[in-house]
UniProtKB/TrEMBL annotation:
Superkingdom, taxonomy of origin: Bacteria
Classification lineage: Bacteria, Bacillati, Actinomycetota, Actinomycetes, Micrococcales
Keywords of this entry: Cytoplasm, Gluconeogenesis, Glycolysis, Isomerase
Family annotation (Pfam families): TIM
GO molecular function, one term: isomerase activity
Protein name: Triosephosphate isomerase
Family statement: Belongs to the triosephosphate isomerase family.
Pathway: Carbohydrate degradation; glycolysis; D-glyceraldehyde 3-phosphate from glycerone phosphate: step 1/1; Carbohydrate biosynthesis; gluconeogenesis
Enzyme Commission code: 5.3.1.1
Subunit: Homodimer.
Reactions this protein catalyses: D-glyceraldehyde 3-phosphate = dihydroxyacetone phosphate
Amino acid sequence: MARITVGVSLKMYFGHRAAREWLAEVADIAARSEAVADGRVELFVAPGYLQLLPALEAVAGTRVRVAAQDASEHDAGAYTGEVSPAELAEIGVRMVELGHAERRRMYGETDTVVAAKTTAALRNGLTPVLCVGETERMPVGDALAVAAAQVSSAVAGAPAGRIVVAYEPVWAIGAPEPAPADHIRALTSGLRSAVAELPGRDGSAVIYGGSAGPGLLTELGDDVDGLFLGRFAHDPAALREVLAEASALAALRERVPA
C-alpha cells in the first residue's frame, strides 16, 4: 500500500480543555476521511503527557495513532519525573517522538541518549519518530551526511522494527516558511535511501517537519512519505486540507507504483 504518513505535535501549546476540543475535531476529521479509514493515510497525533489518555479515548474507533512527545530510556525504576515506554505501550500509545531539536538544545540530549531511548521504544513495540536535521544552513551533501549519521546512530544496536524519520532542519523549525522544496526533496530522498539500507527497518518512512503546512505535500510529491506538522495543524481546517493532499498523493502512487 502506498501509505502517506501525517503527524501532528501539540508541543505544550494547548491546555487540557483546548487539547480535548482539538482531539475531538481531529477524531471527527479522521472518521470522515476515507483515506485515513482505509489506511492509505496514516495519521498520528502527539499531545502532552496529561492529554494521552483523553487522546486515546477521543480517537477510539478510528485509525488515528497516538504518540508521546518523548519517553525514558528505562522501562521502570527510580527515575523521578520520567515516563516509561513500557507504560506508554501498556495504555495504547503506539509511537514516540525522539531526538527533537528542542530536547537536544534545552535538555542536553545527545546522540547517545537518543539511541538509548530508541532502543527502549523499539523494545516495547513503539514506533520511534526520529527527529533529525542540521542546525544551520549548509550544502545538501553536508546536510544529508549530518541527518543520515543521526539516524544511523539512533538505531545502532536497537531491536528490529519500523521507524519514522522526521527530517526537520533546525533552522526551519518555527520559521515563517519551510526549507526550500529542492532542499527538502534532496534530503528526504537521500534519507529514504539510507534507511532502506538499514537491516530490520521494513515499512519505515521519511517525512518532513519544520514549518510544514498546507500545500507543501503537493509540492514535494513523490520525494517524501508525508509531513510532521506543528502549529499550522493546530487549526483543524488546515489539518483537513493536508489530509486531503495526502489522500490525493496516496491515490496517485497507487496508480503509478514506484
